[in-house]
Amino acid sequence: MAIQIYRPTTPGRRKTSVNKSDVTKKEPERSLLIIKKKNSGRNNQGKITVFHQGGGAKRYVRIVDFKRDKYDVPAKVLAFEYDPGRGANIALVEYEDKEKRYLLSPEGLKIGDTVISSLGKVPVKLGNRMTLANIPVGEMIHDIELNPGTGGKMVRGAGMGAMLLALEGKYAQIKLPSSEIRLIPMDCSATIGVVGNSEHGLVRIGLAGRNRHKGIRPTVRGKAKNPIDHPHGGGEGHNPIGLKAPKTPWGKPALGVKTRRKKNKSNKLILQRRKK
Fold it and tell me: What is the b/e burial string over 198-218, where b = at least 16 CB atoms within 10 angstroms of the residue's CB?
């Protein structure tokens, strides 16, 4: 895995780099694909509800197995593939009954390795999945469930890993990549290791066209718009926004304002909030 910087043969190439990660198979497994429908940020009425979306290359969604509910059956790693829907790479594994599935690829996993998922105790090995109660304290984990059997919800991004700090009572204490310490039921499952492709965030886009291929449209500043289009708009030349605090186009406070509900049920499960 390495970041390749292009030679500055053109102005656009001067700031461009790509991630030459450990992808061993270019064509995806057809049985594990579904088409990704485009909505360009519009709802069922055709109104734009999410700005800056539209266009982009045609994509297929890879069906990644976050539940790992084929218990106590070893699976062999066949290949590593690129997934356009996430920063991390995915691993194609084959079970003993010849069924193939996609898994998130941990850092250090190799072709030919075997991984296993279980509700009981299995070897603490890279890529193996088990309940938090069976994982040693201090181990790095990823793809963590919030409720038993629902599949991994947290710590799934490229290069991400959480640390299991303690096992007390019904809950496990986990330090997330954001530095937040959270309680999670011990019968939830997690995968051993850190998610691979850690250099994904170091890529320099370089060209606006690369973002357009991703389906990201240009962002216009609010103060550059007309007053009817944005609360920050209007005025002659370069004016300040003219407000005590920034607002969204719909009048809600923006930029640095906490959006988490104060009476959220899961507040009691957060031991320590993330550090700013």
Answer: bbbeeeeebeeeebeeebbbe
Q: What structural domains does the chain harbor? A: 24-200 (2.40.50.140)
Q: What is the DSSP letter of 30?
A: G
Q: How many other C-beta atoms lie within 10 A of the C-beta of residue 81?
A: 20
Cβ burial of 239 (10 Å; 0-12, 13-18, 19+) is exposed
Type of residue at 195: V
Rounded-to-integer distance, Cα 185 and Cα 170, Å: 6
Per-residue pLDDT of the chain (276 residues; tens, 9 = 90+): 588 999 999 998 998 999 888 889 889 999 999 999 999 999 999 999 999 999 999 999 999 999 999 999 999 999 999 999 999 999 999 999 999 999 999 999 999 999 999 998 999 999 999 999 999 999 999 999 999 999 999 999 999 999 999 999 899 999 999 999 999 999 999 999 999 999 999 999 999 999 999 999 999 999 999 999 999 999 888 889 999 999 999 999 999 898 889 999 999 999 999 887
Token pair of 172, please?
């496990």
Task: Enter the pTM of the model.
Answer: 0.88
Separation CA 89–CA 118 (nearest Å): 23
- Tokens 């994904």 identify what position? 200
